[in-house]
Design brief:
- This protein has 426 residues and is mainly beta.
- It folds into two domains: 123 residues, Immunoglobulin-like; 272 residues, Methylamine Dehydrogenase, Chain H (7 Propeller), CATH 2.130.10.10.
- It is built from two helices and 33 strands.
- 29% of the residues are buried.
- The N terminus is likely disordered.
């Protein structure tokens, strides 16, 4: 009995040893460098060494897995997908796109297999150092659109972003935001306004003003035909956050919404200096409302109205088209000498960017700033650090002679374009 047991144990041991030997790997992968650091737009090259065991000399099949979707816009490739004797190794090249702006460490898993062995794997890591000079993100534009220029992006009080007049999911990366306009109301020319009751207001340059709930229901369209709105061309929209009052500017005057209808602000029913002016811009800053018109810049403090023109203040040109107000009260605006526009509040020519401190005017044009030859200012914004951001254009929607996105920090100008960025002194 003891002899039979010994034979059984010996047989089990032998078969168990043979099975274990068959499971041993016949080759391994090992990168010469686990991690390589590169700047945006540069290339990392990994050499992956292959070491064979036990006289293994069969083909090895190589596969690559990119660990992060952030790297999909980059160029990633292996020199070989099949390797034979002699196993001189393979190379993995990773070239980050110049548009790649998010830094971090990204993984790439290389797997090698063969019918006679278990898979062997190696992981390589690329540490991407972002370009701190220009960290831009790019929104996906729908190819089917006639108008492919994003008009605005804003964030509401709940942290959601609105791209044109579409609310974006919080979990959707900016690169994948949709760009579909509401077909019933055409392209949105202006940033929407979300009032204190979470109603969305949209100014349409042809069809009046639209109000609806955050979920898109309960739409109300205000036009010159069904309300007291002075004109269907709504070219400006703003809210006084202290009162919740909605203001709109049209091609035929200024109006304020009062519960159920609009009240037109003119000399006939108020002490306003406003008439049937073309209103191009409205900005509410604290207790002051600034109104850009084709006949100068108007200031309203809730009681008194004051109009600034080239005749009474040295204003460089009468048409204040787009502007922003700084925390110290300075007003920055694009100016034009045109007395008419193209129907949606845009001028054919502009003279540049102007600053008004309440007393003095300062003009920046292509002679003392990076503005293009036509000095076209599409929009102005001021960040929390006081930097002025100017969107430029060659002429209306043509980018000929444009300077791109221009930043001014009160000392230096920086011009961001698709090709490069440049910085100059004051």
């Amino acid at each position: 009995m003891k002899t039979l047991l010994s034979i059984v144990l010996l047989t089990t041991a032998l078969f168990g040893f043979a099975k274990t030997t068959a499971k041993q790997k016949n080759f391994t992968l090992k990168p010469e460098n686990d991690t390589i650091s590169i700047n945006v737009g540069e290339t990392a090259v990994f050499t992956i060494n292959i070491t064979a065991f036990n006289g293994f000399d069969a083909s090895i099949f190589i596969d690559l897995k990119v660990g992060s979707p952030q790297m999909q816009s980059s160029s990633v490739a292996l020199t070989n997908s099949i390797v034979n004797v002699p196993y001189t190794g393979v190379k993995l090249t990773v070239t980050t796109s110049k548009l790649f702006t998010k830094g971090g460490v990204y993984s790439f898993e290389i797997t090698a297999t063969n019918d006679e062995s278990f898979p062997s794997a190696a992981t390589c890591y690329v540490r991407v150092i972002p370009d701190t000079r220009s960290q831009w993100r790019f929104v996906k534009i729908e190819e089917s659109l006639t108008y492919k220029t994003p008009r605005f992006i804003l964030q509401d009080s709940e942290g959601y972003y609105w791209f044109n007049n579409q609310k974006q999911n919080k979990d959707t990366p900016i690169e994948e935001w949709g760009n579909r306009y509401t077909p019933a109301y055409g392209p949105t020319q202006l940033p929407i306004v979300i009032d204190l009751k979470n109603k969305v207001w949209v100014a349409d340059s042809w069809l009046g003003v639209v109000r609806y709930n955050l979920d898109g229901t309960n739409k109300t369209v205000y036009t010159a035909y069904n309300s007291s709105l002075p004109d269907n061309h709504a070219l400006a929209l703003a809210m006084d956050r202290s009162t919740g009052t909605i203001w709109t500017g049209t091609r035929n005057g200024l109006a304020r919404f009062e519960g159920k209808d609009w009240v037109v602000l003119n000399s006939g029913n108020t002490n306003s200096v406003m008439g049937n002016d073309l209103i191009s811009s409205i900005v509410v800053s604290g207790s002051i409302m600034w109104i850009g018109t084709s006949k100068g810049l108007v200031k309203y403090d809730g009681k008194e109205w004051k109009r600034f023109t080239p005749e009474n203040s040295g204003m460089p040109a009468p048409y204040a088209r787009v502007f922003a107000v700084e925390s110290n009260g300075d007003v920055w605006m694009g100016l034009s000498r045109d007395t008419i526009d193209n129907g949606i509040g845009e001028n054919g020519t502009m003279i540049g960017l102007a600053k008004f401190d309440g007393t003095a005017w300062t003009l920046f044009d292509n002679k003392n700033s990076p503005l293009g030859a036509r000095n076209y200012v599409n929009s102005v914004a001021i960040d929390k650090k006081g930097n002025k951001w100017i969107s430029t254009c060659g002429h209306q929607n043509s980018f000929t002679t444009a300077a791109g996105i221009v930043k001014f920090d009160n000392t230096s100008w920086t011009s961001y374009t698709m090709q490069k960025f440049s910085t100059s002194g004051k």
